[in-house]
Amino acid sequence: MKSPWTLFVTSTSLLLSLSLLPSCSISVGQRTTIEQAHQGQYMSPTLGGKLFTSAWMQRSAEYKALCQQAYNIATERLLAATSDPRNKGKKWAIVTDIDETIVDNSANSVHQALKGKDYEQASWDHWCDLSEAVALSGAVEFFRLADSLGVSIYYISNRDEVNKPGTKRNLIALGFPQVDEEHFMFRDASRSSDKTARRSAVLRSHEILMLLGDNLGDFDHIFDVRDEEKRDESVKVFAKEFGRRFIVLPNPNYGAWEPAMNGGYPKLEEKDAKLRTLLRSHRE
């Protein structure tokens, strides 16, 4: 039996279509998931956006192609470095994020959206315990190749320590290598999202060949700011690293760009109001 986190595209399409109606009640299976009881009440743009981006991640060939493209580039960089005689004897490491970098968690976004809710810690922890995230196209093959070439893999994630058991079960079931305590570097009790110290710990014993992530903070702390202009300028600073030392995976569902755009993590209703004023629109 599929878990309630699984997205059925027919249900999502129905939900998106009926969201345009002035009043509707939408059921998935035997459970009513969204009710719009008052005339003129429409689905939240943020809610609808999460469903639409999740549908793209789960159903489009384009998303799979972009992920495969990122891992193809990573593979070229890996083979070039490990076959170069000048690098003989180097202790190489690859640093990778987990969420939306090697696995797809959009099912949890759908689960929350169908309840009319945004991210919640309890729901996220339960999702991690389920161990049902699926691997991104090209991810398992790339990391197994790196493992076969003697490269150390460090999973530097902002999942919490409590999420480790479920994460390990999930990654082992998917076939990822080096899934053990030594190579897992999760967020500590301080709950800081800054990964600098963890990357530095890897550098004490290895040379980092490349870093993979969906969020630019996975590469450098300079991107962990709530200022869109500074983040844009930092992209220019590191322009030559993208596709070389930094491999970026697509993630339209969430990321540091959201608090940079919104000035933090406002409530769903406030997000919707901001979207109406922040986005550019074609003028008649």
Please give the number of β-strands. 9
Q: Which overall shape is indicated by the principal axes computed on the Cα atoms?
A: globular
State the end-to-end CA separation. 50 Å
CATH architectural name: 3-Layer(aba) Sandwich
| Unreliable spans | 6-41
Put simply, the count of helices is: 11
Describe the structure in your own words.
By secondary structure, the chain is of the alpha/beta class. It is 43% helix and 15% strand. The protein contains eleven helices and nine strands. A five-stranded parallel beta sheet has the order 7-6-3-8-9, sandwiched between helices. A two-stranded antiparallel sheet has the order 1-2. Helix 3 packs parallel to helix 6. It is globular. 27% of the residues are buried. About 13% of the residues have low confidence.
Write the layout of secondary structure elements.
Layout: H1 9-18, E1 24-28, E2 31-36, H2 45-59, H3 61-83, E3 92-96, E4 103-104, H4 106-113, H5 121-130, E5 134-135, H6 139-148, E6 152-160, H7 164-174, E7 184-187, H8 196-203, E8 207-213, H9 228-237, E9 246-248, H10 257-262, H11 268-278
Parallel strand pairs: 3-6, 3-8, 6-7, 8-9
Antiparallel strand pairs: 1-2, 4-5
Helix pairs in contact: 2-3, 2-4, 3-6
Provide a quick synopsis of the model.
The chain is built from eleven helices and nine strands. With about 280 residues, it is α/β, with parallel strands linked by helices.
Keywords:
two-stranded antiparallel sheet, 11 helices, five-stranded parallel beta sheet, Rossmann fold
